[in-house]
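Changelog note: in this version the structure field was regenerated for every chain. One regenerated record is shown below for reference.
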Amino acid sequence: MKLSQITIFREVMLSGSVSQAARNLGRTQPAISTAIARLEDELGFKLFDRQGHRLHPVPEAHYLLSEASDIMEKLATTERNLKNLKNLETGNLRIVAMPGPSVFLLPRLVSRLTKGNDKIRATIITRSSPQVHQLISTQSYDLGISDLGVDSDINSSLVNITPVISNCLCAVPKNDPLADLDLIRPQDLSGRPMATLNTDHQTYRKTREVFRDVGADFRVRYETQYFLPLLTYVEDMQACAIVDTLSAESYLRYRGASECGVAFRRFAPQIPLTFATLTPAHRAQSMLAAAFAKAWKAEVVAINARWENPLPDVLQEATDAQT
């Protein structure tokens, strides 16, 4: 049976005549009659008793009508769902991300993009960057957000990588004299207690290198696995830190301008850090996932752009960005 035959048969049954079915479908009466005759030939039995110019459905025709109605309703539902998927009004989004963005920035972006679309379901789980790479390679998540600062064995045949490069910032206590500077250099931090990531991260190695190059004393007091915990030491006036822009943005948006105890300033020489959006290489990306990946990249680019300029207004801009 062809869908066109089922459509014609159903219309004949519902309208009660070949002529009315032809008008409803915009077809000729002979075309409708031929379609019904071919359907009966394929089934091997008659669907109608023909008495004069009228068709009287046999019991089997009523059964076929019930099945045909179910098929047409299912098709209509499928078409509606596909349209909703195209319009990003429904679907599932599974994200695995490093701790910084997953705490605030990603949920805020998901909330903004899904507002008013209660048929979209989103899941965000937090893992280290190497774990993000591993989980995306299993092809079981739509998107991964990580940094490429830790050496990890990324199987490029399993993962697609879209990088965005940013320059790290220097975090100092808000009331520290260093907060009066627009640009902080290693010499300004010489001998000051520092909070850093673990020694296997490229920001640690690069920071140590730029201190060494100018003869500054790189004095590490605290180490953590992720950027955000470093800011607790800065906030408590125990250390300064070199941090990524996403963690700085998350902190400012979470704390707000009035409660912020950390000042973020540009640092030179620049310490670049590459953020990556990862997608599974062997699973087709949904339109919803593609739209979110595009929005996330735009978000990161916008955040980086805000920190590239002199900083007096950045704190208020970051606070305003969440509204």
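Spot check on this record: The CA atoms of residues 190 and 216 lie 5 Å apart. Residues 310-316 have pLDDT under 50 and may be disordered.
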